Amino acid sequence: MREAVLEPVRDLTPNLRGRRFSMPSITYKEEAIFLAMPPGPPTSREGFAIPKKGSETPDIGWFPWALYPEEVSGEEFSCDVVVASMDGWHELPLTQVNLWSPKLQCLSDGELLVVDERGWPREAKNACVYGMDGHLERSFRIGGGEDTFADESGRIWATYGDELTNTKEGGSALVRLDDHGRKQWGFNENRGDAESVWMFYALNVGPGVVWGCGYTEWEIVRIKDDHVTHWKQGLGGVDEIAVNEPHVLMVGAYHKGDPKFWLGRLGQAELEDVEEVRVTLPDGRSLRDLEHPLSKLGIPLAQRRTSYPFRIIGRNNALHVFLEDHWYRLRVEDVAE
User: Fold this and answer.
1) Regarding predicted confidence, which is higher, 164 or 244?
2) Which residues lie closer than 8 Å to 171 by C-beta, 6 or more apart?
3) What is the CATH number of the domain that holds 205?
4) Domain that holds residue 217
5) Which of 66, 200, 219, 294 has the fewest CB atoms within 10 Å, i.e. is most exposed?
6) What is the pLDDT at residue 29?
7) What share of the chain is helix, strand, coil (3-state, %, to 5)?
8) The dihedral sign for the CA sequence 226, 231, 232, 237
């Protein structure tokens, strides 16, 4: 088995000053963007399920978080949006917000994009663009999203989840919008591309190219100049992906609760030379053996959005790993060498 060690990027703890790290993503500049929340347990608005009134959920089951936003309780909250690099730190306060699993990105001209994943009601403008001074510049509708990323040109890529797909967005598994929310391109507009992809579980938006892995065939997909290329692979579900051609680094779980890392090489039409990768922290601990941080807050298994204790985001040629208040990185070329 191939082995790899996570590279520390930054300890976020000192700058958080007791606040809680939440809902991370990675910008096109490979900065970390996340919410700094007041201390306390996660709210339902951060994407953690609250069982329906009167129901009992004894174990994690198949889809413990598959509850519509109207079916959970939650109040407005205030927080700070943080954009952090290895040595930079910028905060933007947000007050009286009511978001369901917010998606955060930076646009190319310094604006901040905040997307409410729920997309409800159907006509709601669930994407807001703020200036870095906190002023709301504009809002528009994206719809219920599984993932949202902005590229270096300020274009917005949104992929829709099964419970959140909205036919008003054209039924596309993936769309590209301009920075005012106007649709430019849709994956499903070419039926030859769409037949094997109902939704994307993995999405990586890099400079001039987008990579993904979609349900139901779980093919590796590359989108470049609006042209789509497919590679078959036999691993099954892939949750995150990073690429430095011809090598592909993947994390796969598909709700099995035990994610594994894999390295493969793009062949003519299939993913070849696939190897499992054992990934450890710099101190030698395995990611898969760590205690879930929500255990310390008393959050039961049935209310955890993921059963493993870290968040992974694929961006460009690296997987970014967030474990509590620490940010790590695993570059494809470091694993493939």
Assistant:
1) 244
2) 165, 188
3) 2.120.10
4) 2-336
5) 66
6) 96
7) 10, 45, 45
8) negative
